[in-house]
Amino acid sequence: MNTIQLKYFPGIQVQIPFHANEIRAGRGRFGSLDKDARKSLFEDLFNMIRDTVFPKTIAFSTVLDITKASRKPTEDLSMVFSDVASRFNLFLTRGYRRGPKNKGMIIIDHSNEDKYMEFFQSYRDNGTPYGSIYNIVDIPYFANGKDTRMIQLADLCAYAVYRRYEHNDLTYFNYIRTKFDRRSRVGPIDGLKHMTNNECSCIACTSRVFS
User: Fold this and answer.
1) Rounded to two decimals, what is the model's pTM?
2) Among 23, 30, 79, 150, which is least packed by CB within 10 angstroms?
3) Within its chain, how far is the Cα of 158 from the centroid?
């Protein structure tokens, strides 16, 4: 990502945070780039994600459709967070059984820090609706997305998923669709979950129906 920054902002030595919505809208530093340049920047960033090899970059995402949402945003946030955490834990469990005794850590953007800490403590004490998460160590750590490239990377993936499910825009989702955790080439896509009461033909739903 630093190399990509150097391509578009060669005269700036400090780290420029890549935030998808700011790039799209041309806000902040990205206001100096025209629409074509911002499109090219997006392509470079998503090509970078696509071209990394397993297991350097593995994605996990949970999408909550309005048909499954409650009228309590905190409960919805907890449901989605517990699902993502459980999918990450499942990935670590599979690796543990194969041999590598790795544990995982969760790092979250600092927004809603108190809520996430409360959720996670409950998961550690009582488990999630999907089981325990013993392979995730310690507590979540929080960082400002402006300061860490990894949170910026997660933001890009979340943006691609949002565009696909909110606007049916596959432009950037197609770059990352092979990065979602999957236990085998023919098994379900474990790293992507679409919670909906509607019939759906997305890859998350169809991989579970036909696998």
Assistant:
1) 0.90
2) 150
3) 5
